[in-house]
Fold:
Amino acid sequence: MASPAQAADVAKPDADGQWAVGVGRAGGFCRDGRGAGRDACADRIAKRECDHLTAAPAGSGALNTTRARMEPRQAMMHLTPISGVDPVGDPRLSTALQLAEACDYEVDHSHQVTRLALCLFDQLRETSGYGDEDRFTLNAAALLHDIGWIEGRRAHHKTAMRLILESPVLDFDSSMRLIVGLIARYHRKALPDAARHQRLASLDDADQGTVRLLAGILRTADGLDGSHRNVVNALRVDADKAQVRITCGVTGDGTWEQERAESKGDLLAATLNRRLTVQCMPG
Structure:
């Protein structure tokens, strides 16, 4: 069982400020991508690996791995506009939207983070192996991630989880509430650690893996709107077996978004067992 100190050491920035995943286990994560001790999420991702990665068909929304090493200027020509992603288009989100509105949520920021999270998810499908139901789960958690502000900034991530678990408005079963609540809870501060967090430990390995991956995406998306100014207008995800690179088109200065996304990308880097880099460029 990992100690709290080990759990906090899942990923560290290297000399260039990029997140690198270490070797060993901490907080239930697989950190080296090998061995029988991998968690369910790492196992699921590993099964998608092959020795010769091929490009996804154009327009498929899947991760394009063959361009992982393209120059940034080339990547800019292939960014996906996030404006095409509808953050509230699924009718099953109606009660989640009601709860968000009841909590006086910050519409612009929450919808921007939701667009970014869904765009990241769509471009990571090929690597993660996760599907449409997981996308819906992420959609709900992203919309609700900041509703805890209704009771103030302090521990608002934990407040969001409590509201999701207890609200009579939300039309989700108890299992869905718990997973959505945990994803919202882990959008900031502590990383998921089943050794210390009882609610996470109550889930089976597969659901714990889902929470880790989707919370990792949500944390990164939240960083990409760190200034709450909606400066990111398009993005692209490229990956190989060693790293995931997120290239963003921004309106104005995206320095803060780049720094926050790389910092908050710790969980996504650890879960995918890859180094994460973010570059924001005017475009």
Notes: The two ends are 46 Å apart (CA to CA). The CA atoms of residues 30 and 197 lie 18 Å apart.
